[in-house]
Design a protein that fits this description.
4 helices, 9-stranded mixed sheet, 31% helix, alpha+beta
Length: 167
């Protein structure tokens, strides 16, 4: 693994640990507000070209994907540590309970791909994940309560979700 990838991952874990350690004191709102920049209409910037929006109506993966598509967006794809930090902060700001959220990664054979057609070129898996525990865990959720670590889950489970689009 390249040193820059390791450094970025450690930076993210440190930042997220710091943020989650201060949840009860209200620091999360201030720290994430400093990181996430608004795009308008409830959307927040996750990179130089894309903005994302949190949806707090739990849906199965395919239903969440369909809702994103219906508004001209896709379930969010995450390609680097800075985007991951923005996605986790968007979740913290939108949901004080920090429920798991669907991102656009889904198993295709032996690999994961994004619903927007892009490659899964960055990941932040929990230890031992992906494990396809039930043999039906083909979709990826981010767990904000667990520092934003990823887990493969059954696509029929209902989670909140984050859509992203170019803006």
């Amino acid at each position: 693994m390249r040193l820059s990838v390791v450094t970025a991952a450690l930076l993210l874990v440190g930042i997220l640990s710091s943020v989650t350690a201060h949840l009860e004191g209200g620091v999360v709102q201030m720290s994430c507000t400093d990181v996430v920049q608004p795009c308008g209409d409830g959307w927040s910037r996750i990179d130089e070209n894309r903005c994302a929006k949190y949806f707090s109506t739990p849906k199965a993966f395919n239903d969440a994907d369909a809702q994103c598509k219906s508004i001209g967006s896709e379930l969010v794809s995450i390609h680097k540590v800075e985007e991951m930090l923005n996605v986790v902060c968007i979740s913290f700001i939108a949901d004080s309970e920090m429920k798991s959220v669907w991102i656009g990664a889904k198993r295709s054979g032996d690999v994961f791909v994004y619903t927007d057609g892009s490659e899964v070129d960055y990941s932040f898996w929990s230890a031992g994940q992906p494990d396809n525990f039930t043999g039906e865990e083909d979709c990826v959720e981010v767990k904000p309560k667990n520092s934003g670590l990823w887990n493969d889950d059954d696509c029929s489970d209902e989670n909140n979700f984050i859509c992203a689009k170019n803006m």
